[in-house]
Design a protein that fits this description.
Number of domains of chain A: 2
CATH architecture of the largest domain in chain A: 3-Layer(aba) Sandwich
GO molecular function, one term (chains A, B, C, D): metal ion binding
Keywords (chains A, B, C, D): Hydrolase, Manganese, Metal-binding
Order of helices and strands of chain A: HHEHHEEHHEHEEEEHEEEHEHEHEH
Oligomer: homotetramer
Distance between the termini of chain A: 27 Å
Cofactor (chains A, B, C, D): Mn(2+)
Largest sheet of chain A: 8 strands, mixed
Organism (chains A, B, C, D): Aeromonas molluscorum 848
Largest interface: A-B, 37 and 37 residues
Strand content of chain A: 15-25%
Protein name (chains A, B, C, D): M20D family peptidase
């Protein structure tokens, strides 16, 4: 039964959630399963453009050791050198388009609710990795992907074309999507679907055209100056903290934009060493937002200029590192049209347009496919929730996973069925 | 033999250095010894004005436990409730002046040199408290004080008046002197001597009038605002980090002073929590300096005004905490005159005036005695060094400790001898 | 003929435009005419709350002298002590409501076009006060008010209730409305109408419900510190320019607001005297804006806090002076309903809602009437223009003034006709 | 009589003082006189390196017109194209060294005292150029130079070598010295003398080795951005005023220097246009100082970096213009030795060393001569004063001018007398 398999996978993943870029156990299990079913497995640099990986500072050896202890598949773990994430390719050998499906696999930094009311505790599948939790339903997304892989193989003889299942790492913080998009495996995809469980939609609802995805850039800045004794030779220092303070002040003053909502924040700053030492280094973490890519780019462009100028003022050097990025999403209208009757046939309650109001790095994948002439869409698979996303008591109605598999399967049949 | 006793004490203390305000083992041993010799022992609130204690954030229970493990005297440890430091009072019962002597007892945050060339390693009395070291000779000062106590008792019948031996905690960072001065035990002292081993003087030298003690104030500032989601409602925050940045920038701009050298530094700053949260709190550590108390006060006065103004600008509250303070020192000329022949008689090479160029919180003690009509002086007891003060390989020629005891003993005889 | 009278008045005023708060000639002529017709005239402190007068720094004696030279009525000029502006009250002595009408009378700082194409030049009624021009049609508004006064008297026997004609000074820069509203003469008004010629509407159009009036506060800040020789005693100064710079920087960083559009600008700043003198004074001019009064208040509230904080940081004093203020306008729906058939009867092309997109200090009058339970509305009387408002070549189709008189007259008849 | 000639010249110049770079009348009279006496006259680009001229923004035509009205020599005025300043060369045709003498000729921006007590008023030779006054004795210096020229010619047959008399423009604000030094006419000078009347020395005193000349750089900064409507499109601006404010704040924070006194001041700042316009331009005037050239360079180097960084932060361009510059002065010891007996012979009371404590751009001339292997000295010719330098009531004991001529004449005889 599909729903049993879905529950099995979802709860296994829920029990052992893994942080962004640390999904070694998850990736090894996905790779093993896809391979077992007959998919060609792609990993690492073959899948992601490593130069665009963002927000990744991990101890690979320690994470792999942990993953192994927690039941990773040893063979596939060994083949995953550094970068997590998996793609499974199935090629019918027959003519036809290439379809892509994206499932994100990482967990969030949330300490799961320990109360008796919380279903995972009642049934003993709560998180065993303290501080981390699948509180954004990526466990469900992954389960959908794995069961869809089974369904594809079960009807392989009736299908033409090719199918690519993308299991994306590091969606949280919008850190992995850009590298996956740039990896190139999406370039021959004719139609891509991504979905998210929950998000302002109830069980039985399907939002075909979510809107108002916020564009955002997450960035770290490091200023590197020269320490000096503040009493004996203050002139010998190059004050990295002063640069950080002036940059922060100036960033807060980035002008509003005529065309709509923008945001700027410096959320963390630390610098200096001893009280009597001119600070030789300082770091800050910030983010920009905009109602459109152009608005976000406007703000981040000013951030870059301000950082450069502040560094120059103090005679220090600097590094700006993007730690995450999201762009807007505009579903392909033809795809929305195509999906509507499929959803209707499943008796799903389709909603055309609803505000998303958050960030999603699937935007990079969708834009890549569309730029290459393909179609792409991001769907909200409604689900009753026990608590909001990222909340310690988050849980979702597991039955909706079957809707997800069903919809994607029907889409595959619609596009790839051998007549 | 005096020198054996001095070495014994010095090396015992060297082996188990204790941080400022954590000198529980040291204090318990001093108290026990003074009591044993017949001194009246004073501790804690009876000795220090606790409201003026600076730069003290310690876990008393944990420190006492450690001290006990490391051989503290259990009885006296129990009597030391919170504040370290000890005074021993000897009263001859005969008329005569009251003399005071100050010895500082804390260690510094330095990781002792592990090399074979370093004498403590050769003889196995190197620091057993990692990260802490008697690298400023306070172990030697304390040893001098304890052996002086013996010498006083050995000639008690020939002396009149009274003697107070002050074993001061937390000289490093200039954190304890002000509280000790304000405690009141110096108010009846007619003459006070303090000494320091080393400091630009060689073995056999005695500097009678060191000059250019830097006035300084060490301070921490905390800004307390209101966090808010930087994307959803930026207007709801009160940005503590912005206040800290603006305060820092403005402090660096405190104008120079016509009358001489001033300094200002913000050595550390940290604030904020998540990247997407308006920072609700921020902290900074700074220091001011001046060639005179008036110059230091000028700078610190501006710091206070700037912090208040920056907090107001952002609608946040703030706390300024003094973490240390030092004022200038001007030795009483009569005392210098009195000491010169005593030093000559010991064949010490007396140096009248030499630049000190650092900070010392003995200044508060000296100023207190002088303000009450007494005389006071700070002396440099020359010693050949293996490395500069606060250096991991610091060590000093232990024989000079005997010069110290000798000089102080002669001064006592000169003032208190019953004719 | 109404249109001849309208043209006469309009061109006379156009020829001698007077700046905000300097409308001495204009006011004297209005007062004379209203009195002549039988209205009770109110002036000065009886009309305006002088403590709320904004943006007024004038030489009264010089302005009155000029007004006299330019044909002011000497008797009424003498009665206008300081504040310009006039109200005419007509009381039927019969029961009935009190109606109010507002006409603004000041000119703008624009140098009138000297070209032959410009109609006033062709007919020799162009501005004779260089640098000042009725380029916002207030000459037309005033003419409408004066001719309406005639029309009222012509049918006095058929009307009940009371009528108040408000000739408001200093609308430009939003400087006079607040003082007029607070003066109290609006408190018994049951229905108030204000109108503006032009503004995105063509001759023959009447906009009944203009929207998106911007709330705004215009402010000046002065910082008063202490000068000192920058070389000889930098410490003796209190740097007013530094305060202004820090305030400016911080104002630019006032956070965006969740609820909508806000703006902040420091448009001018000047401070200091000689190159080698610590600046003892500095001045800046700024403005805040918001899509709602609450949003504008949010920004201006932060401005005040920032100025206070910046002054404190530098030990200087400060003054914030409001130089203008505008709030939003929401026409009373019943009044719109009532006016629509009256306009239709005149064959005017009524437009229900159109974006205004600028600021108007009639908002204070309208809000005052509405708060006291009355109804009020601001109308756009369409007019073909030769150039945009405030342009040197501005002129308007004078025939629309007759529409204005006609509409207001019909409204009076509708409300006050004795049955 | 020498003293009558000195008085005549001094009072003529005093009556018609000319600002820096505007000394057209003065220069024409000097040139005429030198030529008349037989000197070869050099002017303009042949004398000054025009690319190093600082702080000069004048209307040449208007100034020449004024000079002509005030009695300039028309022939020589015509030959002075743009740059004021004159050098007279006398060549004996016999072997011998080249001697140089420097006299500064400009007045200061001071409104002369109109009181009866002020000697020039009593005798009707007070300033006729309102706002300008010879309040720094340059009228006296020039008179000394012109009478010295006579004295040289009177004994021409007894002298060998060559003599150059430099009449330097624009000493006030330290604007002309650097260009004169770089002009090259000093490069063959074997010994240069400059003198100043007054300056902490009484009539009859001669200070041979004044010290503590302050090094200083006077600079203007202009920021050029982009204006934009602050309400409609704040994002379109490039805020030059914001750049100026941040630069000012950062300049005030230039760290103190270990090696001695430094100063920084922004004495004037103005920027922006209308209240509702993002400021497109801003200007500031500042100065740096240092106890040594290295210290002044340290501060000015940071100024340049800060301005560049601040401009970059706001995306604006900038110009830094030096408006004046002074370096230190160290008199050649041999020259002091040589002058001492000459002064003694005149019964002058020689003072070896006295603090100057201000800036003098003769430093560039002196440094140029010394760098080329020559000797140079700056002397204080004591004079009783009626009020301090630059004071409206300034006047000096005119008899000391004769001491000046006498000393320089003796020096010439000592060096150039044909034996």
């Amino acid at each position: 039964m599909t729903i049993d398999a879905l529950r099995h996978w979802r709860r296994d993943l829920h029990r052992l959630p893994e942080a962004a870029w640390c999904e070694f156990r998850t990736s090894s299990l996905i790779a093993h399963r896809l391979n077992e079913l007959g998919f060609t497995v792609m990993l690492g640099d073959a899948l992601l453009a490593s130069s665009l990986v963002m927000g990744r500072q991990i101890d690979v050896a320690a994470q792999k050791e942990r993953a192994l202890r927690q039941g990773a598949n040893p063979d596939w773990l060994a083949r995953i050198e550094n970068l997590t994430g998996v793609m499974g390719l199935w090629d019918s050998g027959r003519p036809g388009p290439t379809l892509g499906f994206r499932f994100d696999i990482d967990a969030v930094e949330v300490d799961e609710d320990g109360g008796e009311q919380h279903q995972p505790n009642q049934e003993a599948w709560q998180s065993h990795n303290p501080g981390w939790m699948h509180a954004c339903a990526h466990d469900g997304h992954t389960a959908i992907g794995l069961v869809l892989a089974e369904r594809i193989m079960a009807q392989a003889e009736q299908l033409g074309g090719r199918i690519k299942l993308f299991f994306q790492p590091a969606e949280e913080g919008c850190r992995g999507g850009k590298a996956l998009a740039a990896g190139g495996q999406l370039d021959d995809v004719d139609a891509l679907l991504a979905l998210h469980i929950g998000i302002h939609a109830a069980s039985g609802e399907l939002v075909l055209n979510p809107t108002e995805f916020l564009c955002s850039t997450k960035f770290d800045v490091e200023f590197m100056g020269e320490s000096a004794h503040a009493g004996l030779e203050p002139n010998a220092g190059h004050n990295a903290l002063a640069a950080a303070c002036m940059a922060t002040t100036a960033m807060l003053g980035i002008p509003r934009h005529r065309d709509g909502m923008t945001r700027i924040n410096v959320g963390q700053l630390s610098g200096g060493s001893g009280r009597n030492v001119i600070p030789g280094q300082a770091r800050l973490q910030g983010e920009t937002r905009g109602a459109s890519p152009a608005l976000n780019d406007y703000v981040f462009g000013q951030v870059q200029r301000i950082v450069e100028g502040a560094a120059l003022m103090q005679g220090v050097s600097y590094l700006i590192r993007k730690q995450g990025e999201a762009i807007g999403i505009n579903n392909s209208p033809e795809l929305i049209e195509e999906l509507m009757p499929l959803a209707d046939a499943m008796a799903l309650n389709t909603v055309h347009t609803r505000r998303f109001g958050a960030s999603e790095d699937a935007g990079f994948l969708i834009e890549r496919v569309q730029r290459n002439g393909g179609q792409a869409a991001y769907l909200i698979l409604g689900a009753d929730l026990s608590a909001p996303h990222h909340h310690p008591a988050f849980n979702f109605d597991e039955t909706v996973m079957a809707h997800g598999v069903g919809l994607l399967e029907r889409f595959i049949q619609h596009r790839l069925a051998v007549s």
